[in-house]
Queue: 2 jobs
Job 1
Amino acid sequence: MECGMEIKMDIQVSDILNMKKMHPCKNQGSDCFEVLRIGMDIRVKCMGCNRSMIISREKLEKRWGNKIIPHIFYLSKLL
């Protein structure tokens, strides 16, 4: 990656993001987060404990594991 280049995240509401690290939930830690709202900041929900949090785009890009799973595919794997 060259200096000054930005990676644009092409995410939609209800997409599942696979993060680099697990969320430190008590019993049900998960590295998958569902996108609830997109704006200046992004609201995501942990798929393990259902806790939602607001995170800035900059922090999310650092913690993001470079994998986006569309919501429909994630649900089909669970069934």
Job 2
Amino acid sequence: MIEQNNAYEVAVRAAADKKGSAIEVLDMSQTSLMADQFVIVTANNVKQAQAIADNVEENLKKEGFTVYHRRSEERRVG
């Protein structure tokens, strides 16, 4: 099993597997009580965003992590 502080690595790999782009990992360990890292991923459309979120959640669970909350948000430009 992967150590808890490496959950973000699982999330990044899972997002990349579904062609997520501009993947950023923010280190929140010194500023947040809720999370040590935030993973931000860009998708080209709503379907892709859903596929990325589903894959991240599935892979985290496979590695023994508990997913407490997930947020996907559609943003339209123009």
